[in-house]
Specification:
Two copies of one chain form a homodimer.
Chain A: H1 2-17, H2 21-53, E1 77-79, H3 80-96, H4 100-117, E2 128-130, E3 135-137, E4 140-141, H5 142-159, H6 162-179, E5 190-191, E6 208-209, H7 210-227, H8 230-246, E7 248-249, E8 254-255, E9 258-259, E10 265-266, H9 275-280, E11 290-291, H10 293-310, H11 318-332, E12 343-345, E13 350-352, E14 355-356, H12 357-374, H13 377-394, E15 395-396, E16 401-402, E17 405-406, E18 412-414, H14 425-444
Antiparallel strand pairs in A: 1-2, 2-3, 4-5, 6-9, 7-8, 9-10, 11-12, 12-13, 14-17, 15-16, 17-18
Chain lengths: ~450, ~450
């Protein structure tokens, strides 16, 4: 208790030392309010929404598409990444508050995954099936494989079901065998059904990206936590270093986007089987050098988590973390309307001013992590600017989930609660992670 | 036949266009003489020597050490790489002239390998056993793993025994899983029994080298020829490009030697479980930038073989091949005494003037390959300078094998016919490859 009291003092001193007293007192009050709101949203809205609606009672696995009123939209297909994300969600819930219902929901998701997504011939996870599990697209997409590892490792930690670790490890082994680029380092990201690299260009065979590599880092973190194996730790550290050394513009504090196989930055194109390409289709390379504030702040907290799991010091990475957060504060936060912009210019300046759900979820966690690392009150202010916008405009409290897309002012562009890419992963994880971090701040008072 | 006659004309025109007539006529005569001598040595001396002496009739596997008179030296240990090299040798002989005796000798070598060298617990091949197969050193040395892949793939091609391909593929998969460096590309080379990287320094955990990567290329070539799998071809092409882009000084035409994990050139140290370290022990880093004429010329012909197997064009690599060969002609060949020097300075100039067997074996093949690529008579002259020295001084014709080490003039320093690193791999392969190439030149006349 003494320690907690001292920590609380440190926090308060720190807050006071950084700005006007009235303002910082207000922030302390805000933390308490935010904590309550996050908690209410998580336990009274989000969790119940998915608990009621997620399981596909007809075919097994999970429903992924819900309209603005939270009603299921009949969706002919199931995607690997969202099926995995829901396995992850119920596994995570079972860790936060153990409950057989969550276990069973996760378990039936794993049953569906193994029965319908696992490629018995080539190994690995197919990309897409029909809602009843019939095969549609056997492509091996590393982004999807990473979510299989992440969810199955956490499922194993949560439930003890050995299939989770077994399949997570099998997937990891296949990635090493087929996707490691032994010429340049890093991983091939887009491969055919038989794990031969996809053609170049729109098929993405000749591209690497921060997004997929960051999600591999996230997956290897959980895998190492599940297995404790030296190899998994080693590959985790390798990808941490690869990302920090090659995939971030350290001068401006911006994550880079796309690369050729040698990891030279390239003008981004849309790549098949990505969220962007499914909305916009194929389009010519955009020479504008953009960066994603959502990815940059997500990278901070996922890398802190990865370093902690691997037992590596955070110190060598702190300058980079600070740069990434400061760039997002300076250019990404809309202090006028609240929220965080979708994309910016790599050298500085917001570019796409819409407000999309996932950048908000990840930046909330990123800024609370940033405050813990640096005790700089501006990260709490950034958190506050995002959260108040999310709470007022983005969350559909009546339904219990987040709208997908708003304009700068908060008017709804796409009010649907979930689609074949969204589900509970970003929103739910963000609320769990924020609740935990805010509680820690509260306990210091 | 018409084609052969035309080719013969091309050869003769080419020879004549490059120098004095008398000299080139002499070289043509020499090719015929050399062919006969190589053939005699191979079939009447080398093959019978190993056919009589190689198999360890007491314990199985192969004997590796023989004195200057070709008498076996009792050796308490068996090494992975030389056991594999002898499996390769008898497999190769069975391809050149199919014979059940060779098959059986290779097969009993494979039996010994699988029974005593294969690590059932961790997978992969242990480094060293006692002569009866008892365990001594379970370290996983990629140099040794590469010879397991090379020999077992060729054993499969030669005999059809599926264990060959099965274990070659298993080894390849383990290399991808444990040894691929996913941060920088290339492979870790020195690992512990459980495939965790060895400590830095003398244990070599933090080093990469041309030698091991070149032998991986050699191994992946045979593996792809055996399996026909896209993955094996892809990894073969990756390592070809890695070596040519990162491990050769293209300006001087010298192979580089040692690297850190990022593939920056480092002053070489002796590394445990290498031929150098076993003779000389641990020693401080040598800041002298050396290159091996043996490796450089070996690289030329092994990479030509690899590119041909992968169906890749040789054209983009020809400038490098020419540079490597020209550097070796200029600084490596001892045109006064014959033979090729052991090591030189990377920027030019011979450094270690002793004459060791393996540099001679590989440069002979390298220069004949060079002549075929470039039709430059100086490569035939280089071949001739090496071969005449080998024939007169290095080969112990009475015994049937090559002495290990001579001084510059050809006086014997180490006259032993074989040791735990030597056996028939370099000498025997060189004579098979030279016989094939000289026959091709002969047939053109």
């Amino acid at each position: 208790m003494l320690m907690k009291a001292i920590s609380g003092l440190v926090l308060i001193c720190c807050l006071f030392s950084n700005g006007a007293n009235a303002q910082t007192l207000e922030i302390i009050q805000q933390i308490t309010d935010d904590y309550k709101k996050v908690q209410t949203h998580l336990y009274n809205e989000l969790i119940p929404f998915w608990d009621r609606n997620a399981v596909d009672k007809q075919y097994g696995g999970f429903l992924t598409n819900f309209d603005a009123n939270g009603k299921p939209i009949d969706m002919p297909e199931k995607y690997l990444n969202t099926q995995c994300r829901m396995v992850w969600w119920f596994s995570q819930l079972n860790m936060v508050m153990p409950n057989e219902t969550y276990q069973h929901k996760a378990e039936q998701g794993v049953d569906f995954l193994i029965q319908y997504f696992w490629d018995e011939k080539n190994g690995g996870w197919n990309w897409k099936v029909e809602k009843d599990g019939s095969q549609i697209d056997k492509g091996k997409i590393v982004y999807g494989q990473s979510f299989a590892i992440y969810s199955l490792a956490d499922y194993y930690i949560s439930t003890g079901d050995k299939r989770g670790l077994e399949y997570a490890e099998k997937t990891f082994d296949l990635l090493q065998k087929y996707c490691a680029d032994t010429q340049h380092g890093g991983y091939y990201e887009n491969l055919e059904a038989n794990w031969a690299p996809a053609p170049d260009g729109f098929n993405g065979g000749d591209r690497k990206g921060l997004d997929t590599h960051m999600h591999l880092m996230e997956a290897f973190t959980s895998l190492y936590m599940a297995s404790g194996k030296e190899l998994h730790k080693r590959k985790l550290i390798e990808i941490i270093k690869l990302i920090s050394e090659k995939m971030v513009d350290h001068q401006s504090g911006s994550g880079l986007n796309q690369f050729d196989l040698e990891r030279n930055t390239l003008p981004a194109i849309n790549i098949k089987r990505t969220w962007n390409a499914e909305r916009e289709g194929e389009k010519p390379a955009d020479p504008t050098e953009t960066t994603s504030y959502g990815h940059n702040t997500e990278l901070v907290w996922l890398m802190v988590r990865a370093l902690n799991a691997a037992g590596e010091s955070i110190e060598p990475y702190k300058t980079m973390f600070k740069k990434l957060l400061d760039n997002a504060v300076k250019y990404g936060i809309d202090f006028e309307n609240g929220g965080i912009y979708r994309d910016g210019l790599r050298k500085g300046g917001a570019l796409v001013l819409e407000k999309e759900w996932w950048q908000h979820t990840e930046s909330l966690v990123g800024f609370l992590t940033g405050y813990k690392l640096f005790q700089d009150v501006k990260y709490l202010e950034a958190f506050q600017a995002i959260w108040s916008f999310v709470d007022k405009k983005m969350i559909n409290h009546q339904v219990g989930e987040w709208r997908r897309l708003l304009d700068r002012e908060g008017n709804v562009i796409d009010g649907n609660i979930s689609n074949e890419w969204k589900v509970a992963y970003h929103s739910g994880r963000s609320m769990i992670e924020c609740e935990r971090r805010l509680r820690e701040l509260m306990q210091r008072d």
